Structures are given as C-alpha cells and as structure tokens.
C-alpha cells in the first residue's frame, strides 16, 4: 500500500511539473513598442509560502521586468502604507516607479500603465490592480479562466476599470 501511495505521489508531481512547463511555454512573451523595464526595478512584497505569487514574478521576468522579491509576514502593512483601497487587495503588492501594482496584473498592462500619459484620476492615480485571485490571470494558471478587470485606483477609494479580460 505504501509503495502505491508513493508511486501515486511521484506520478502526481511529474504530471504537475509537466503541466506547469507546458503552461509557461504556451504563454507568449509580450513584445510591443512599450520598452521592457530592465532599467527600473520592481519590488514585489509577498508571503514566502505563496506559490502563485512566485509564478507571477516569473511571468514578469519572462516579460522583461527586473524583479526584487521581499518576503514578508505582513503584506497588509505594505498595502496600508501605500493607500491601497481594501476592495483592490490581492495576495501580493508590487512597487515600481512610485506606482502600486496589486495582484496578478498582466505584464503588458503594467507596461501600458507606466507608459501612459493619461491616467484615470490624473496625478491622484496610485496604481493598478487585479483584485482577488481570478483563475487564468498570470500566476493563476489552473486551466480555468475567469473574466476579470484590471483596475486603476486612487487613495480616496475611486476605482475604474482600464481593461477587461472576458472568458
């Protein structure tokens, strides 16, 4: 019985690893006129035990971002310090060029936001977020796809969808 359990676990791990590699290989590297941000570092604050956060960091790196990871036991402190509205929260918070990037925001949307000269709330815009943890967003690759919005937000609680992903 123990041998069957061990063999089953090994088979599960091999299958999971193969699926992960297949999903990563299938993800397109986004190459647009917006330059990669290799000259500007992004700092990602996350729990050391969060696998989907690590997957999102890998997505960013594959798309040209220079990422520094800061593991913390209190990600909420970072969210509060940077005035993230509660309804925009997700599992990790990133900072780049004074902007707050919350949750599983696609790399291409971060690039577009950083290059934008017209922000939804002007200078009061603090950043963009993918609230919650929608399946199918970068780092949340489970084979299921939920529709979700990339939201711009301001410290006073105003939010506005800047892009919608429909599935």
Can you put this structure into words, describing what you see?
With 167 residues, the chain is an alpha/beta fold. The protein is 32% helix and 25% strand. It contains 4 helices and 7 strands, in the order αβαβαββαβββ. The chain has helices at 2-26, 51-62, 75-81, 107-115; strands at 41-46, 66-71, 93-96, 99-103, 125-130, 148-154, 159-165. A 7-stranded mixed sheet has the order 2-1-3-4-5-6-7, with helices on both faces. The protein is globular and about 35 Å long. Mean pLDDT is 83; it is low at 2-38.
Residues in helix, %: 25-40%
Mean pLDDT: 83
Strand coverage percent: 15-25%
What sort of overall outline do the alpha carbons produce when their principal axes are compared?
A: globular
Q: Regarding quaternary structure, how should these chains be classified?
A: single chain
Reading side by side through the largest sheet, how are the strands ordered? 2-1-3-4-5-6-7
- Class from secondary-structure proportions: alpha/beta
Number of helices: 4
Amino- and carboxy-terminal Cα gap: 42 Å
The ordered string of helix (H) and strand (E) elements is HEHEHEEHEEE
Task: Report the count of strand segments.
Answer: 7
- Residue runs with pLDDT of under 50 for 5 or more positions: 2-38
**How would you sum up the major sheet?**
7 strands, mixed
Q: What Rg is obtained from the alpha carbons, in whole angstroms? A: 17 Å
